[in-house]
Amino acid sequence: MGIVMMSFSLASVFGVPLGLFLANHFSWSAPFVLVAGIGLVTMGFAAMFVPVLTGHLISKGEKHEIPIVNALTNPNQRSALLVTTAIMLGQFAIVPLIATFMTTNVGFSEHDLTYLYIFGGLAAMVTAPIGGRIADKYGKFPVFAIFSLFNLLPIFLLTHLTVQPLLIPLLVSTALFMSSAGRMVSGTAIIISSVSARQRGGFMSINTCVQQLGAGIAAFVAGSIVTQLPSGQLQHYNWVGYWAMGMAIFAIYLASRVKTVDTSHTPTQIAVAEGDV
């Protein structure tokens, strides 16, 4: 999971600066055209090289399951989806406004933003696989809790920054990227482990929908709190920081309620354990 999540950091290192370059030198739509093209190429490679994995599915004759029904009726799956919701409500209240806050309140130039994403992405690339290995060794929840608590400090510092030398905001933002990556890896592992293999595909589809919904609500909340002064500076971004810190702590509580499903059992045994039969 750490290796997979590292790809998001890699995208930050190369994708964000490339997107800014294309938008500045061509048009705002150029990055979207590139993403569409990459998506088509990726679909082709996936069709050619990704194997079909159906060995975990239930055999014929067993009841047909509806993922959304399972997610809403199974307490363990509901708890896992609430963990996703809390993570997204906190993290994506901060993220959409980082670039604007850095340029209007901290004194960054548009060029300086490139360093923010490069250093943050590189740090997250290192943290993600390390966080995954630590979670495998010491347990998913303890690692999630530690990274979440560590995440509180850079959230507080970032949302309270004023005009500073370039190095200080870069250190704070890099710490934010690092702790967020470690938290996301262990948090995703907790969420995935809440459901049996035969239900995992449908559940992760629901989880992705919850992620997108949570990100949208978080951006709406942040936009409702933050105002822009006549000078262009953002006001009350620190309030958004308090909101994100509260969500991080709430996510720890929710994650403590998620139980790991033993996928070594048979589908019927798993169904009984999950309360499906």
3D structure, described in words:
The protein has 277 residues and is mostly helical. The chain has one domain: MFS general substrate transporter like domains (Growth Hormone, Chain: A), CATH 1.20.1250.20. Helix content is 77%, strand content 1%. It contains 10 helices and 2 strands. It has helices spanning 2-25, 30-49, 67-73, 75-104, 110-138, 140-158, 167-192, 197-225, 237-256, 267-274, and strands spanning 227-228, 234-235. Strands 1-2 form a two-stranded antiparallel sheet. A hairpin with a 5-residue loop joins strand 1 (227-228) and strand 2. Helix 6 (140-158) packs antiparallel against helix 7 (167-192) and helix 6 runs antiparallel to helix 9. The protein is globular and about 55 Å long.
Briefly summarize what is shown.
This protein is mainly α and 277 residues long. It contains ten helices and two strands, in the order ααααααααββαα.
Helix and strand string, N-terminal first? HHHHHHHHEEHH
Q: What is the total tally of β strands? A: 2
Shape verdict:
globular
End-to-end C-alpha gap? 30 Å
CATH architecture: Up-down Bundle
The largest sheet, given as strand count, sense and whether it forms a barrel, is: 2 strands, antiparallel
Please give the share of residues in helix.
Answer: over 70%
What structural class do you assign from the helix and strand content?
A: mainly alpha
CATH topology: Growth Hormone, Chain: A
Number of domains: 1
